[in-house]
Amino acid sequence: MADHIDMANEVAEAEAARGIAAAQSANHPVGIEGECDQCGDHFTRLVKDHLGYRCGYCRDGRRKPR
Ligand SMILES: [Zn+2]
User: Fold this and answer.
1) What is the pLDDT of residue 3?
2) Alpha carbon of 42 to ligand 1 centroid (Å)
3) What sign for the dihedral angle of Cα 43, 47, 48, 54?
4) pLDDT score, position 26
């Protein structure tokens, strides 16, 4: 019984690792470092959308906490 549970956990972990790797490779090309086209602040990761390269705060419609 324990062996079956261990195998199930290993399969689940492998699936999760594959999903994370796929998400990272999918996100990587669109994230760049630079100044946000909307708020003008510098960010290490901007993502291009229909308004240009924007930070996560602008894309979410909220201001950066100060
Ligand atoms: Zn911004």
Assistant:
1) 76
2) 8
3) negative
4) 58
Three-state helix/strand/coil letters over 13-57: HHHHHHHHHHHHHHHHHHEEEEECCCCCCEEEEEEEECCEEECHH
Measured in Å, residue 17 CA sits from the centre of ligand 1 at 31
Domain assignments of the chain as residue spans, ordered by start? 2-60
Measure 4 CA to ligand 1 centroid, in angstroms: 49
| pLDDT per residue as tens digits for the range 7-62 | 888 888 887 887 767 666 555 455 899 999 999 999 999 999 888 999 999 999 88
| Pair of tokens at residue 54 | 């924007």
